[in-house]
Amino acid sequence: MLPFFDEARIRAVLRMEELVPAMEQALVAFSAGRVAQPVRQMLAVEPQGGFFGAMPAAGEVGMGVKLVTFYPGNAERGLHTHLATILLFDPGTGEPLAVMDGRLITEMRTAAASAVATRALAAPDAAVLAVLGTGVQARVHVEALRLVRGFREVRIWGRAPERAAALAAELGAAAAPSAEEAVRGADVVVTATSATEPVLRGAWLGPRTHVNAVGWRGPAGRELDEAAMLGAFVVADSREAVLRESGDVLLSGAEVHAELGEVLAGTKRVPPGMRTVFESVGMAVEDVAAARLVYDRLQARG
User: Fold this and answer.
1) Nearest to 246 by CA among 231, 260, 229, 233
2) Residue 286: which of 244, 241, 245, 233 has the closest Cα?
3) Domains in the chain and their CATH numbers?
4) pTM above 0.90, yes or no
């Protein structure tokens, strides 16, 4: 029978320390054209306000497909907003290898990609991290970004002050009374919200601040205002996907200057001293690379 790996088995072997370099390799391979990956197909699910997506990828990082649902309203029900299943194949024979729960992989690979971006784009001496959001992405981003920068201060803001305070206490961070107070003076900012209108204003950002924009509500929603986008060097995980799916880019008219894989490979350069935005909509190649890492670790265990 085709094995199924549930979240507990995945959690036992998937380590952020290994996932960050795996994401770097996947991003470079994608931008270099060594991975075949169409832009994901997203279906709106009405009247629930949900989305259902199919995300295949094949190349040097492996071969597979993720089926993912995004239901923002689940947060009010105490349920995960993102749920997914990944089917992994042998790229040499086309044989299916395993089915695995994709929720934790999606959560961790998103933060690992932001860690790669932060290491490449943020100031080497970045010391203050601000996180807008209080969900699973907020939590895992603090874990991942602490691997690549030695932050002396972490600030958390969310629309529900009690949730921000609880998460801050859990992470050894400080709860900020407003988004502006969280962001002003921060070297690195993460926006991990379900906002459809901007929660981050460019007027709050320093000239060299790096922003990881990971919240997603489709092409009609955004987390960053025009000033935040137009005054920055914008780096995408996938240029094609961002130009189709990212409201931050589409509603501001901002230019996508490079893909992260191009910056990592040295084929695109970031102007020194410039504010940067990593616009992350998520890619199948990241899921497949992470799933392959899980599969290999579990196979090694026997």
Assistant:
1) 229
2) 241
3) 4-106+284-301 (3.30.1780.10), 108-279 (3.40.50.720)
4) yes
